[in-house]
Amino acid sequence: MSSLAAQVAEHPRFHLLPQSNQLKALMTIIRDKNTKRSDFVFYSDRVIRLLVEEGLNYLPVVEKEVTTPMGVPFKGVSFEGRICGVSIMRAGESMEQGLRDVCTSVRIGKVLIQRDERTALPTLYYSKLPKDIADRWVLLLDPMLATGGSAIKCAEVLKEAGVKEDHILFINLICSPEGALHMLEKFPGLQIISAEVDEGMDERKFILPGLGDFGDRYFGTE
Ligand code: URA
């Protein structure tokens, strides 16, 4: 791991999935350029499911007592606060089902951010967010965190809509150390949940070693 990647992995608001052999095997399959599309989708979905489950660990809970079928009281917890998903189109849409599988009837907003050809700045082209998003915790969905340009723009859009910075959980499969540090510095409340931190980016800002273009491989538009 490079020193920058190690810095990210140790950051208190950066949460790496447990680096189990299972996760490493799933990630090896999706990183392999010879993996066929159906397997890419299947194994990406498995990693997404793990990420969403991990993300839910960072939501607040309150104490709750129930009675078991044995007639015995049990002191447990229940989730406090409502959530929603926001996917960054198009690749982030691949993560929506994973969220729905875990949180039935969850509300999901979308944003489309692209680089303006004139200014080269990430520009918002479309957004549709739940009306009460300011009162929710937001799971921000984008599989690859490269420079962080789109994700930063999206977090700004969420904040303008009233979302509290520390209510944003950004979920991705692979991040570049530069992108992750940039986001964590820019938003001192936001948390990132990721499966792996890579080494860096190439001159086209693709993550290395990475897995190529996630959206193209997932949606079959290579
Ligand atoms: N988006 C991708 O799909 N892949 C990368 O490597 C970077 C951004």
Topology pattern, helix = H, strand = E: HEHHEEEHEEEEHEHEEEH
For the secondary structure, the number of strands is 12
The proportion of residues forming helix, as a percent range, comes to 25-40%
Name the CATH class.
Alpha Beta
Query: Spans of 5+ residues with little confidence (pLDDT < 50)?
Result: none
Gross CATH architecture: 3-Layer(aba) Sandwich
Distinct small molecules: uracil
Mean pLDDT: 96
Beta fraction: 25-35%
Radius of gyration from the CA trace?
Answer: 18 Å
What is the end-to-end distance? Answer: 30 Å
Which structural category do the helix and sheet elements fall into? alpha/beta
Number of helices: 7
Main sheet?
A: 8 strands, mixed
Number of domains: 1
Reported by name, the CATH topology is: Rossmann fold
Give the overall silhouette.
globular
In short:
By secondary structure, the protein is α/β, with parallel strands linked by helices. The relative contact order is 0.18. Bound molecules: uracil.
Report what the structure shows:
The protein is α/β, with parallel strands linked by helices. The protein has one domain (3-219): Rossmann fold (3-Layer(aba) Sandwich). 33% of the residues lie in helices and 30% in strands. The chain has seven helices and twelve strands. The strands form three sheets. Strands 1, 4, 5, 6, 7, 8, 9 and 10 form an eight-stranded mixed beta sheet that branches. The protein has a two-stranded antiparallel ribbon with strand order 2-3. The chain has a two-stranded antiparallel ribbon with strand order 11-12. Strand 8, helix 5 (149-160) and strand 9 (168-175) form a beta-alpha-beta unit. The longest helix is centred in the N-terminal third of the chain and has 20 residues, at 37-56. It is globular and about 60 Å long. The model has no long low-confidence stretch (mean pLDDT 96). The structure holds uracil. Uracil binds at residues 91, 144, 146, 206-207, 210, 213-215.
